[in-house]
Amino acid sequence: MDIASLPYFTPLVKDYLTRFEDAPIREFFAIAPVAPHEQMREIIDTRLTRERALPSSHRKTVAESIRGFHSSLGAIPPASARNIELLESPDTIAIVTGQQAGMLGGPLYTFYKAFTAIELAKSFREQFPNLSFVPVFWIETEDHDLEEISSVNVLNAEGRLESIRYTPTALSENPEAPWRKQAGSTPLEVKPLAEFFEKLQAALQPTGFSAEVLDMLHHFNAPGKTFAHAFASILLHYFAEDGLLVIDANSKELKSLSKDIFRREIETSPQLSEQIVLQSVKLEETYHAQVKARALNLFYVNEESDRLLIVEKEKSSGEKREFFLKGTRKTFTIEELLSELDSHPERFSPNVVMRPLYQDSLLPTVAYVAGPGEIAYYSQFAPAYEWAALPMPLIHPRVTVTLVEDRLERVFEKFHITPEDILSDAHGRNTALFDAMIESELQPRFASALADIDRTLESLREKVAQADPTLDGALTSLKGKVLTAVRDFESKTLAAERKRHATTKAQLDKLLAALLPSGELQERELNLVYFLNKYGPRFFEVIKQLLHPIALDFREHHILHLKDPPQSGM
């Protein structure tokens, strides 16, 4: 399905995906998403030049950090172990993607991103056989948006969307208190986990796979494990044989490698932000700006593990620069802040602007697999990479997919529609689909009546103007009021008609819940656990097989039809 026909992507993203060479979006990226071989070779050579100039200790530290994180999850799979060794070589290139450490793996697109990165690494190995390419998943463990990270959306036994949330004890005891701690390093607790899984089990339709799937998820999300460890365990469960590497860069050793870029941001702020603002102004002449840069794009993690924004105080001429932590009374002179960076680099945390620069100062990145939102903010970041003296990577879109279950096919047949109809501009987030499906002549009759009223009143305009020119405006006002009243009456009548078709509405509501939960694409809302519960714990192997031939085809939104497994009893 053509991406351009979908209402769920912005004009910026549509132009990037489907008409890069013919649209203004080309001014904001170093290379087209189709990655011409010669241009890709230039990016790779630039990256290799930088990597070969770095001390070998840099690569060794990064590799050891990844190895240590993998070891904390259990035995390192052979494919991952080989890729960690390769990463120590200055001739190895990274294909990177990333996401927050979402509960149970987060939305479906998390897995689509990982698989796209794996397939893109394979593609580059074929194009450049003298080099090594490894897929790396950057787990955004420093994010403190717990509400988004801790929620899991599934379709319940009635086919309705249901959100299950993990709530830490501190938050349940004081729900009004702001959550400022880094979510990735937050340990999972016994009671909140038990409550979470109890609600999850109650929501899911019982199947022959339910017990096995829930046991597996309990294992990955055991009490004492952090969000980051649970998330990484799930990723490696599905992608270990593909050699996927996972990285949690929230460590003193890795932060130490990037002290120079953090120091430069502190010393020269707001220079970086000013460059991004200029780029954003230019971008907004045609599109939209996704990210608003801060004057200083770093957080500070205090002794209580709160992640706090660093803000510079206003100063008069001649005064020394001074900073404070937002929401506290803690202050630093610039000398104290830089001294803290030297002594405790792990206390400094990049925001959305600084994170890609931190990431690509650590890893030998030549391509980043991005979702639509990330594509939008990377369009603002070319000056940031210049500021950091880093080569900007290829921004490769992840595969985008809707899964269609067997149970929905009967509804499509009944109403003579297709998944494409549901996802198109004409349907989806409004009631147009339902109105089109019910067997009623109300809408065309009302449309005809409205046209007749408009035409009749408009035919009076000339005579009214001849009688009194000042009445022209009154006629326009009258026409508006009459048409509005008729439309309001139409809405009430159609609402009554919908009630007469309760069964039909229930079927179509389930259809929309499955394909457009909360009015969004399925991949952005549903968690994989819904499909694991229905199709079995090895379901993702089936999805990988279905994704394999389309993983790098980003100009289409792919619709994959699933067959019910006979052993599920569904």
Explain what this protein looks like in three dimensions:
The chain is an alpha/beta fold and 570 residues long. It has a domain at 153-224. The chain is built from 27 helices and 14 strands. Helix 13 packs antiparallel against helix 17 and helix 21 packs antiparallel against helix 23. The model has no long low-confidence stretch (mean pLDDT 91).
Keywords:
5-stranded parallel sheet, alpha/beta, 570 residues
Mean pLDDT: 91
Estimated share of beta-strand residues: 5-15%
Distance between the termini: 29 Å
In the predicted model, the low-confidence regions spanning at least 5 consecutive residues are none
What share of residues is helical? 40-55%
Largest sheet: 5 strands, parallel
What structural class do the secondary elements suggest?
alpha/beta
Shape: globular
Q: How many β-strands, per DSSP?
A: 14
The main sheet orders its strands as 5-2-1-11-12
- Return Rg in Å: 27 Å
Annotation field: number of helices: 27
Summarize the structure.
With 570 residues, the chain is of the alpha/beta class.
Topology:
Elements: H1 11-18, H2 37-53, H3 56-73, H4 78-87, E1 92-100, H5 109-127, E2 132-140, H6 146-149, E3 151-155, E4 161-165, H7 169-173, H8 190-203, H9 210-220, H10 227-239, E5 245-247, H11 252-257, H12 259-268, H13 271-283, E6 298-301, E7 307-312, E8 322-325, E9 331-333, H14 334-343, E10 348-350, H15 354-362, E11 365-370, H16 372-378, H17 382-388, E12 394-397, E13 400-404, H18 406-415, H19 419-423, H20 432-437, H21 442-459, H22 461-467, H23 472-499, H24 502-515, H25 522-525, H26 529-535, H27 539-547, E14 557-561
Parallel strand pairs: 1-2, 1-11, 2-5, 11-12, 13-14
Antiparallel strand pairs: 3-4, 6-7, 6-10, 7-8, 8-9
